[in-house]
Amino acid sequence: MISKKSIRRNFLIQLIFSSASLILIFSSLLYFYIEKSIYDEKVNELTHYAKNIINNKSVFQSTEEIFAGNLFSLNIEIVYLKGKNIDSEVYEKTEKKHTLLTIIYPFKLENNSYLKITKDITPTKKLLNKILRYIFIINIAGFILVIIYAITLSKMLIVPITTLSKKLSNMNEHLMKPIKTEELPLEFEPLGETINRLISRIQNFVKYQKELFIGTAHELKTPLAVIKLKNQVTLIKKRSPEEYIEALKVTNQTIDEMNIIVSNILNIGRQEGAQLDKPVEVDVIQVLKQKANDFKLLAENEHKKLIIDFKPDGFMATLQVSLLNQIIQNFLQNALKFTPKDKSVTLRSRQDDFGLLIEVIDEGCGIDDTVDLFAPFKRQGNKSGVGLGLFLAKSAADALGAKISIKNREDGVDGTVASLQLNSKLSCIIPTNR
């Protein structure tokens, strides 16, 4: 059965109603056209008779002989209509189941005499009634065919939606497969691509969440084991106050490391909340300039140089600013962390076919291409850190509908290129002031 909110039901009703209305209007116009044509023909016939009589010709005299054989259905008489001066008058009446068509035509105006010619058009009326019945029967047959056609067409049109619904209804986090967009009609390909992107995001989210839980348990288990072992060793025998103090310092240091892990995990929760913030329209270039000013002082303090190169002059986008700030901040923090002293970090942007490309280029040690650095608790190099920064950046980029990547430099210099690609579909470029 089709529900009240079914697209197919609404389509069926609209198609049947519009088709039935079209058939009704067309058949009505056709019948009225046939009726008027036949009626006008009969009026012309009577007028022809009247003109022949006035011109002292045979009643049925005609070059085309189209009226021959109608003598027995005619009634011709002369009537006197005083006080009237009419060109001609035609009327119709029914007597004893016979339909009569009468024309009053001027004969001799000086004595107010008129020809009154009456013709029995009952056969013609019967023919028109028969035509009307046939049109009615054809309308019923056409309406039935319209219903069959509408049901068939709606079933054909609803197949892609039904296919998508079945595939989506059978999915869960363990059985997610991309939809084959090449099997869909052209009109449904954008929907299929959007669903595939959503499926990919869900798969990445589930994958990284599992890794996050496992990594969190592992990261917290190790310092807890260290604390327990240190306490057990300390309690084996009586020790000096200095040794107890040293053991407590080690315990506090381990607890601080655990607090850092917990803080980073809390940041994940805050970021998921930020993804629900209402997007606002901002100039991305201005956001980048502000972030560059914040890190320029930090770079100088570490004897490093921050180079900025922003193009175009402005780029408007509708997004969550906190998520954009989080990504750029993580890129710059990592770049400055792994870049040696007296080296430089470049923050630049440029427009391409996809939208706005933002890049942070450093002169560090590079990365291992075989490691998924966006997975939680993945660390690179010998620098301190929990390994959640790039994981948070990837989540933020997914929420923005942007692309994020990190790769080694290809210009012969050691280092990495972290890039963020903003989609221009929800963005517009500010004209450059010349």
Describe the structure.
There is one protein chain. The protein is α+β, with helices and mostly antiparallel strands. The chain folds into three domains: 7-145, no CATH class; 191-274, Helix Hairpins (Orthogonal Bundle), CATH 1.10.287; 280-429, Heat Shock Protein 90 (2-Layer Sandwich). It is built from seven helices and twelve strands. The strands form three sheets. It has a five-stranded mixed β-sheet with strand order 6-8-9-11-10. A four-stranded antiparallel β-sheet has the order 1-4-3-2, covered by helices on one side. Strands 5-7-12 form a three-stranded antiparallel β-sheet. Helix 5 packs parallel to helix 6 (321-338) and helix 6 packs antiparallel against helix 7 (389-400). It starts with 6 loop residues before the first helix and ends in a 5-residue tail after the last strand. 18% of the residues are buried.
In short:
The chain has 434 residues and is an alpha+beta fold.
What labels describe this entry?
single chain, 434 residues, alpha+beta, Heat Shock Protein 90, 5-stranded mixed β-sheet, 4-stranded antiparallel β-sheet, 52% helix
**CATH third-level topology of the largest domain:** Heat Shock Protein 90
Q: What is the number of helices?
A: 7
Per CATH, the superfamily of the largest domain is Histidine kinase-like ATPase, C-terminal domain
Low-confidence stretches: 60-70
Structural class, please? alpha+beta
Q: Strand tally, please?
A: 12
Arithmetic mean pLDDT: 79
Strand order of the largest sheet: 6-8-9-11-10
β-strand percent reads: 15-25%
- From the N-terminal CA to the C-terminal CA, the straight-line distance is 65 Å
Principal-axis shape: elongated
Reported for the largest beta sheet, the result is: 5 strands, mixed
Q: Which percent bin holds the helix content?
A: 40-55%
